[in-house]
Write the structure tokens for this entry.
Amino acid sequence: MGKTKIYVIFALIFMTTAVFAQKPDFGRDRFNSRDNQSTTRELELESLDLTDEQKFKLQVIKADQKRKIVRIKADISVIEITKKQTVKNREFNAEVVKVQIKQIMDLKTNVEMVKFDSLDRTRKILTNEQWKAYCEISKKHRYPRNRNRNNNRRRPPRDYSEQEMEY
């Protein structure tokens, strides 16, 4: 009888830890994820009436951009790790850290240049009408900035033109 109680308690503990170890899904991941946005964006891009050649060239541009950005971000991560390790050292050289910060900023600039280059190559492939539609679709699916800030609290800028200034 004593062994069965121990087995039952062990089984209950195992089941409860397995249940609580799972990630709760509140529906956010399914509906607001970047993957879902990219699929709807791709569906809207199909409305541009692209030729097969244009589709192929755009896929090549997108793959090339992703490949380059992944490599650059990996380099940024490595430099940031070494910078953190350097700063943790009590007797670090400030010039070394400054060089590392400059390298990180240069790599981040390279990421933006890769994105701009891809956009420029895309613009050259599309016709004027397709480009305008592409810009509208891209604007519509742009990731919202400052999403953690409460934008309702912002006050409109003051208009000092009609107020009298006292000195």
